[in-house]
Amino acid sequence: DDLVRLELESTEMEIMRPYYTTEQISRYYSNKQNDLWVIYTGSDFKNPERMRDYPRLKKHIDRFLSVLTSDNRPYGLHRAREERFFSRPKVVAIRKSVERPAFAYCDFDCYLSQTFNMIQTSRVDMRYLTGLLNSKLAAYWFKSKGKMQGANYQLDKEPLLSIPLPNPESLDKNIEMNIIRLVENIISTKK
User: Fold this and answer.
1) Rounded Cα gap, residues 39 and 92, in angstroms
2) CA–CA separation, 40 vs 57, rounded Å?
3) Can you tell me the mean pLDDT for 88-112?
4) pTM of the model
5) In which band, very low, low, confident or very high, does the pLDDT at 1 lie, cut at 50, 70 and 90?
């Protein structure tokens, strides 16, 4: 394990976050087991003095200084998002989905690149939303109103924001619960 090889101090582990790719995120299912980590730092790490408390991480990053391109270099991430996006339950959309749209339910801390879009709302259950967005009806809508690259779906922000979904107040709770159960069964099977 790379983190073990770096022999990080507990203070250094405080800025390490689990990083996920399409190897862990698939249609419906997010696998919590990760192999990659990201040093999650903001623009305040432009100041090299901020790394003083993280000597082993600094030494590790210093090996790559010549290729870093972040506007917040030497030690800050480029365009770091607010951490709330990664830590709350969410639906993860794989932006370039092969053959059909791919949305995964994720209920753990999950740090992602721009290969994904994240959807968070308190208006509807995320598992229900995962089921709706993975449906054939949603695929049809994304194909006709969204952006396609050949047979692949490009799930960008605009088509995601404009998909017509039922008003949460008008939902039949039995239908909603059935969809949630189906999504939970699919997730359980994929585990």
Assistant:
1) 21
2) 11
3) 95
4) 0.87
5) low
